[in-house]
Specification:
The chain has two domains: 40 residues, no CATH class; 122 residues, Arc Repressor Mutant, subunit A, CATH 1.10.10. The chain is built from eight helices and three strands; from the N terminus they run αααααβααββα. A three-stranded antiparallel β-sheet has the order 1-3-2. Strand 2 and strand 3 form a beta hairpin.
Length: 187
């Protein structure tokens, strides 16, 4: 006689193995909602990484009002391709605990949301060369210019999205620290 819990886990594993990451996330979110299971917190970024979360809101405060990436996207209302990449990257990092991001996964998520961008590599490159840098490259797989690259949001990139989400008004002393909103958005 087999253990029903093990059988259920094997069934779930085989069902999820054939799905891409965004689809797995949607299926798991549905299962949590359907069966009333609380979502476990994603692993926290180590404090020694140099790009830690010490200067941002705790995940629970920042993300608790958003049930999925579509809610975050709608609330942030990004207007440029770079902002779109930042918002989805922020979701991947804070809600899903992904420290390294890849442009293909972000572009796929943007397509699912109905907001594809023309050239995701150009958008990421613009964020990486902006001052302050909003993303940094962490890896490059391959030797060609088209090689797959991994990147992560910097603390400044995280702050920018939190400003878009209204996070600056949630933190005492954060709003107006630099005297203006550096992304040109009206407050």
């Amino acid at each position: 006689m087999s253990d029903p819990e093990i059988t259920a886990m094997a069934t779930i594993s085989s069902a999820l193995d054939g799905l891409d990451e965004p689809a797995r996330d949607r299926v798991l979110r549905w299962a949590r909602d359907r069966y009333g299971v609380a979502k476990s917190a994603p692993p926290r970024e180590p404090a020694s990484s140099g790009l830690g979360r010490a200067d941002t809101l705790p995940r629970e405060q920042t993300m608790s009002q958003f049930s999925d990436v579509a809610d975050v996207y709608a609330s942030a209302n990004p207007t440029t391709d770079g902002e779109k990449v930042l918002v989805v990257g922020y979701w991947f990092h804070t809600a899903r605990g992904e420290n390294e991001l890849d442009s293909q996964a972000i572009n796929t998520e943007l397509k699912h949301l109905g907001y594809p961008i023309g050239n995701v590599t150009r958008a990421v490159s613009g964020l990486a060369t902006s001052v302050p840098r909003l993303v940094v490259q962490t890896k490059k797989a391959g030797s060609t210019k088209q090689a797959r690259k991994k990147f992560k949001l910097t603390v400044e990139g995280m702050k920018r999205v939190e400003q878009m989400l209204g996070g600056a008004s949630l933190r005492s002393g954060r709003a107006g620290r630099n005297g203006d909103d550096s992304d040109g958005r009206a407050e």
